[in-house]
Amino acid sequence: MIDKARETALKIIYNIENNNAYSNISLDEEIEKNRKVLTSKDIGFITELTYGVITWKLTLDEIIKKYSKLKLKKISLWILNILRMGIYQIVFLSKVPKSAAVNESVNLAKRYGHKNSANFVNAILRKVSKSDYDEMFEIKNDIERISKTTSMPVWIVEDLLKENDKKIVEEICKNSNLKPELLVRVNNLKTTKENLKEKLEEKNIEVKNGVLEDFLILKNAKNIENMEEFKNGFFTVQDEAAGLTCKILNPSKTDFVLDACSSPGGKTTYLAEIKNDEGKILAFDIHPHRVKLVENTAKRLGLKCIETKVRDARIFDENLKEKFDKILLDVPCLGLGVLKRKPDIKWQKKKEDVEEITKVQKQILDVCSKYLKIGGHLIYSTCSILKEENENIVNKFLEENKNFKIEKIELEENNFFKKYLRNEGFMQVFQNEKTDGFFICKMEKIS
Q1: Is 39 exposed, middle or buried (0-12, 13-18, 19+ CB in 10 A)?
Q2: CA angle 249, 246, 314 (to 5 degrees)
Q3: Are 233 and 190 in contact (CB under 8 A)?
Q4: Which of 54, 68, 119, 397 has the smallest count of CB within 10 Å of its CB?
């Protein structure tokens, strides 16, 4: 008898690997397909296996290499993922007995391979133990050790080590594997923080205050999008580091604001809430379906001051020159600051992608900076942690645009994010137990 939860997880992982599918979308679709036969416990286990295997793939593959005479590329993708799932359970899930991990993996191998496949899986998994992972910490080479113990591609480790101390890099990579907290932003135009807290607690959801005043941390929350409070626009899901960009830009009610890379609308709508839904926000995105996401989010939250347009932010529009008081440029990036939520990113991105994405980032900043009024403020931000995408882009821009200067980011003394401020005026947040990784720089147009 095949275990339904493990088989469902296998199908999701296979889809992510074989089709470059997004982990969160693939997970949601497969669970929805099988919701009638899955318990809440099954769904929790499927989620754990999916994100666990995708997150720890490099480490799991190192253990397979240790015991397999076959090279990884010679192993069927179905069988390879069955091995990864089995090893993840043995090494990282203390509550799963090794016998169950082995037996259920063998059963899956019989269905998705043949008798020899089952024997192969059985032989490898019976040799695996937690010590296989522990041994990796003894590796002398820093890059190799950090890569294998944190399941981080070598090129990312190398890039981080260029600009950061070894201990910091180890911490960044380790924190990329943490299970993310579920954070929501309260829509103060529709409810109060205390009222929302009360309503959520009535549903047996554990609620704690976030770092920022408008945010809450939820535990034991399931099917968020089906909640009445979500549908009624009382809150939206957003990480606090992302929300911080809007707090730092801090538009007034009368400011004309541009959000030039707005989808899916989390920051656009927070700017609107900060503005008390007054004045006007123009929100761009390059794809119609992504603009629709912004519109849907604004509608659900009951916001009227947002106007959307399908537009490529890299193409200059003379009609918008010096029209805006405040501009948010949360530009496309490699997304290495959100690996806790989207672990598949680290396997899909390559070193050569850095050059391509930084060209796009620079083009957007060069073009959209021309839309800012003299005396206006612009935020350049990414959910990434590489200097090439962040400080280097801003420094190059300032070299070429002497009419801009960095504006010091002011935070209260006890603000959690204050420790991430740098003397140059940059804020580089690395993944931690509370938030995603994020870069923020605030600039003023002085002439």
Answers
A1: exposed
A2: 80
A3: yes
A4: 119
Per-residue model confidence as pLDDT tens digits over 233-260? 999 999 999 999 999 999 999 999 999 9
Closest CA relative to residue 185, chosen from 221, 204, 210, 220: 210
Distance CA 55, CA 44 (A): 16
Q: Is 8 left (phi over 0), alpha (psi -120 to 50) or beta?
A: alpha
Contacts of 90 by beta carbon, 8 Å cutoff, 6+ apart: 96, 98, 101, 102, 125, 128, 129, 130
Tens of pLDDT, residues 288-310? 999 999 999 999 999 999 999 99
Q: Which of 155, 170, 164, 90 is nearest to 128 (CA)?
A: 90
Q: How many C-beta atoms surround the C-beta of residue 107 within 10 A?
A: 18
pTM for the structure as a whole: 0.94
Which residue shows structure tokens 């396997």?
347
> Is CATH 1.10.1740.10 what the domain over 4-134 is classified as, yes or no?
no
Render 143-191 in DSSP notation, one character per residue.
HHHHHHHHT--HHHHHHHHHHS-HHHHHHHHHHTTSPPPEEEEE-TTT-
Instruction: Tell me which DSSP letter residue 370 carries.
Output: G
Angle at CA 27, nearest 5°, toward 21 and 29?
A: 90
Structure tokens at 401: 């645009």
327 φ/ψ angles, rounded to the nearest 5 degrees: -135, 135
Q: Where does residue 313 rank: exposed (0-12), middle (13-18), buried (19+ CB within 10 A)?
A: buried
Q: What is the pLDDT of residue 385?
A: 96
In the chain, what are the domain boundaries?
4-134, 139-175, 240-445
Q: Which range among 47-51, 100-104, 259-263, 430-434 shows the weakest confidence by mean pLDDT?
A: 430-434
Beta strand 280-285 with 306-310 is parallel
DSSP 421: B
CATH 3.40.50.2300 fits 240-445, yes or no: no
Mean pLDDT of the chain: 96
One DSSP character per residue, 276-322 reads TT-SEEEEEESSHHHHHHHHHHHHHTT--SEEEEE--TTS--GGGTT
| C-alpha count within 13 angstroms, C-beta hemisphere, residue 423 | 0
Type of residue found at 231:
K
- Asked whether the beta carbons of 288 and 309 are under 8 A apart, the reply is no
